[in-house]
Amino acid sequence: MPYLSQAVILLLCLLVTGEARRPGLRVRRWTGTMETQKHGTSLKPPDVTKSRRTKTEHLLRVDDHDFTMRPAFGGPAIPVGVDVQVESLDSISEVDMDFTMTLYLRHYWKDERLSFSSSTNKSMTFDGRLVKKIWVPDVFFVHSKRSFIHDTTTDNIMLRVYPDGHVLYSLRVTVTAACNMDFSRFPLDSQTCSLELESYAYTDEDLMLYWKSGDESLSTDDRISLSQFLIQKFHTTSRLAFYSSTGWYNRLYINFTLRRHIFFFLLQTYFPATLMVMLSWVSFWIDRRAVPARVSLGITTVLTMSTIITGVNASMPRVSYIKAVDIYLWVSFVFVFLSVLEYAAVNYLSTVQDRRERKMRERAHSQSLPCTCSISQTKTMTLLDGTYSEADTNSLAGYTEEPIVPEDDPEENHKVLERSDHMVVHLSMSSESAGTKKRKSLRALNIIQNTHAIDKYSRMIFPGSYIFFNLIYWSVYC
Questions:
Q1: Which of 34, 143, 243, 328 could hold 178 in an S-S bridge, CB 3.0 to 4.6 Å?
Q2: Could you tell me which of 248, 151, 256, 155 has the C-alpha nearest to residue 196?
């Protein structure tokens, strides 16, 4: 028994001290960066995240410096380069006179306080959490109305630090900025807008803001497009901005020119207005006596033009000057309104003319009765008996009865009586034929006068004037 107890104790000691050896058993020992195995050794790069002394703040010595002050404080102005990549131009608002743009804004500067030693000379990349602990340029957008940094799924901020202290600070921003637009040529206009960048606190004596690569500092996506505008060009400029209370500041400009597409407005504004003007000309070919047709057509075209003008102005800012589309629409409205006034003039003049012609017809009717002067009533009745109707016979009543006959020559008396008989017959027949011809001529005159002279001239003057106006309009604004 004593020997058995000693053997068990010895076996336990061997297991605890690791001296027991078995085939295939591996024993790993961590000695810094070495991993020892039974079949050989291999090297691995160090995992600095597991070492307390290689913490980011310690590596960049963030706690050793005051990052509330700019780099090289007290010395010359620190140069900060900027470049921009435009991701999208989201919208252009004529009513609010602004635009919305999404872009990648990148800053480049050198801060020797962030330099660190590195055997591989590789940079370190961080997210937005480190930005709050170091100094970054305080660039803001001048004349901006709204702006925000995208935060899906995290804040779209990137900070890259190089061993020599150079820093790249990038963020993704959407900004809505004001754009002073001139609508005097709308919708045949071109607009130039600018996005302005400037340091908020540091004057040009402390911070020199510049485009890192000149015009190449601005890049755009070729797929950028707008529904109403054609993007003609992007370019960059820079200048100094002066504030009376604080001094001079460097300001960077992103300029872009937009030309408006005209086809939409041709379909929605110009073509309907032109058709309404042409429709108002139809009244010149309608019978002037068709008062309901011509009046309703004129009122319809006037109200339609008013609706078109109201719809265009509803989508525009209330500017105090005249726009190009206003000139076209109001001239078209005047043409439509004049067509209504034209019919009012035609109707009035026609009424006056009808009254005058009625008086003339009455006067002509009273003067067209047959004359039987100096013919005896008995002889006249004898000649008319059995030849003309009673109405024609009665129309001869009331005239003188005594014929004018020479007293000294009986033969002449007989000839005069015969000529008088023929005169009565000829006079009665002539009056009947003259009345028939007059009625036919008046009927033909009424047919001709249904088309008033003003309508005839309007058929040529209105279209000719409107075509002439269009030639001048499109030659000036196109």
A1: 143
A2: 256
- Tell me: the pLDDT tens digits for 363-382? 887 776 555 444 444 444 44
Task: Show Cβ contacts of residue 71 under 8 Å, excluding neighbours closer than 6 positions.
Answer: 78, 109, 110, 111, 112, 113, 135
221 near 86, Cβ under 8 Å? yes
Q: Minimal CA–CA distance to 140: which of 56, 196, 222?
A: 196
Q: DSSP code of 219? A: E
**pLDDT (tens digit per residue) in 273-288:** 999 999 999 999 998 8
Residues 226-236, buried b or exposed e (16+ Cβ, 10 A)? Answer: bebbeeeebeb
The span from the CA of 470 to the CA of 273, in Å, is: 12
pTM over 0.85: no
Predicted confidence (pLDDT) per residue in 69-115, tens digit: 888 888 899 999 999 999 999 999 998 999 999 999 999 999 998 88
pLDDT reading at 453 higher than 50: yes
261: number of Cβ within 10 Å? 14
Name the token pair of 389: 């109707």
> Contact, 189 vs 183, CB < 8 A?
yes
